[in-house]
UniProtKB/TrEMBL annotation:
Superkingdom assignment: Eukaryota
The keyword Cell membrane belongs to this UniProt entry's keyword annotation: no
PROSITE patterns found in the cross-reference section: AMP_BINDING
InterPro entries reported in the protein's UniProt record: AMP-bd_C (IPR025110), AMP-bd_C_sf (IPR045851), AMP-binding_CS (IPR020845), AMP-dep_synth/lig_dom (IPR000873), ANL_N_sf (IPR042099)
Organism, scientific name: Raphanus sativus (Radish)
Name the UniProt record assigns to this protein: Probable acyl-activating enzyme 17, peroxisomal
Length: 428
């Protein structure tokens, strides 16, 4: 264990950059907030005295979503607010005068992230009590004059299908943020059109990161449903077939690994072994053990990154590895009656290669006019044309909805377990 701890010894690679951020941040705070070494509430006349705590002192505990494996209890520290605020400032230009809205809750990391990202940067936080799926939320965005609106792709899909944003003025929005799921190009073109084609900043990270490790940027040309840069204070690696990092800037698909020293990232777990979860068995780079995150990413020839879902959701179809997200992107556009799909690789009961099963959720789940055999042929045709001629859909099953975590991530492992237990031709 001594070797493990020594290999993770902290090196302050990005300290200077973040010190500059804090200096700039403090210079932007209105003087009325900083009086006599504390914070004065000008409305109540109450002074709050600052309390000194170590940087690593725990402020709150969040639970990971359990998308893969068991949920983990992850302590956030005094560094976590700075990571959240720095991401918003650097990559989304959140600043004083902004009104930031992001449908979330305090049980998901984006809840405390929103508090820190908006208030530390001097922005206003717009809170809506209710479902964000209907016209009432669209009206709230208009009336609150939201300037930065965060979304998850499934919310955007619902808005588009129900036309619930029609007639509302979102012209004050200067950019969108998106996280939680892989995005769809057509859906995001539609989203941009709601606000005169303002940009969408893709944002991907995790509870244990305190923010993102990869993101878009307002300072670079963007590609829809793609990421343009590592988050400030982070370095990325894509692991090749041999488990080692691909050469810098080389295109390819593989599990994404992080440099071991990410500002704001977790260093402990509540009742868990942090090293075993994030570092054990990972390759080294320049003498340092890389950090595991578990996402599958593609680096394109143009230098952009695209998410392909969790590495655990990768299937082996006839000896070819493919991510669920790649197949789902194709299937979602095959028929207008399809709301969403989930692609699952299921091992046959008698052994042999994984078989591809597509779980389909229809926009009208009550309709009985769906020909699953015809849909299976359509799926096969499009998948073989757009991905690989050797891929073949073995079965199509219908669901009223996909199983999701509390943070809206599709739980493909649950579907895989159900299909394995019930057989490929059974209804779920």
């Amino acid at each position: 264990m001594a070797e493990e701890e020594n290999s993770l010894e902290y090196t302050p690679t990005w300290v200077v950059a973040f010190i500059c951020f804090i200096i700039v941040l403090l210079s932007l705070l209105p003087e009325r907030f900083l009086e006599r070494g504390g914070i004065l509430d000008s409305h109540l006349g109450v002074e709050y005295i600052a309390v000194e705590k170590p940087a690593g002192a725990c402020t709150n505990i969040l639970f990971s979503s359990g998308t893969t494996g068991e949920p983990k209890a992850i302590p956030w520290t005094n560094i976590s607010p700075l990571k959240s605020a720095a991401d918003a400032w650097c990559h989304m230009d959140v600043h004083q005068g902004d009104v930031v809205a992001w449908p979330t809750n305090l049980g998901w990391m984006m809840g405390p992230w929103l508090v820190y990202a908006s208030l530390i940067n001097g922005a206003c936080m717009a809170l809506y009590n209710g479902s964000p799926l209907g016209p009432a939320f669209a009206k709230f965005v208009q009336d609150a004059e939201v300037t930065m609106l965060g979304v998850i792709p499934s919310i955007v899909r619902t808005w588009q299908n129900s036309n619930s944003t029609s007639g509302y003025d979102w012209s004050r929005i200067r950019c969108f943020g998106s996280t939680g799921e892989a995005s769809n190009v057509d859906e995001y073109l539609w989203l941009m059109s709601r606000a005169h084609y303002k940009p969408v900043i893709e944002y991907c990270g995790g509870t244990e990161i305190g923010g993102s490790f990869i993101t878009g940027s307002l300072l670079q040309p963007q590609s829809l449903a793609a990421f343009s840069t590592a988050a400030m204070g982070c370095k990325l690696f894509i692991l090749g077939e041999d488990g080692n990092p691909l050469p810098p800037d080389a295109e390819g698909v593989g599990e994404l690994a992080l440099c071991p020293h990410v500002f704001g990232a977790s260093s402990s777990l509540l009742n868990g072994n942090h090293y075993n979860v994030y570092f054990k068995g990972m390759p080294t780079f320049q003498g340092q053990v890389l950090r595991r995150h578990g996402d599958l990413f593609e680096r394109t020839s143009k230098g952009y990154y695209r998410a392909h879902g969790r590495a655990d959701d990768t299937m082996n179809l006839g000896g070819i590895k493919v991510g669920s997200i790649e197949i789902e992107r194709v299937c979602n556009s095959v028929d207008e009656s399809v709301l969403e799909t989930a692609a699952i690789g299921v091992p046959p009961p008698t052994g042999g290669p994984e078989q591809l099963v597509i779980a389909v959720v229809f926009k009208d789940p009550e309709s009985r006019n769906h020909n699953l055999n015809l849909m299976k042929k359509s799926f096969n045709s499009e998948i073989q044309k757009k991905l690989n001629p050797l891929f073949k859909v073995s079965s199509v099953v219908t669901l009223p909805s996909l199983p999701r975590t509390a943070t809206n991530k599709v739980m493909r492992r649950v579907l895989r377990q159900r299909l394995t237990q019930t057989g490929l031709n059974s209804k779920l």
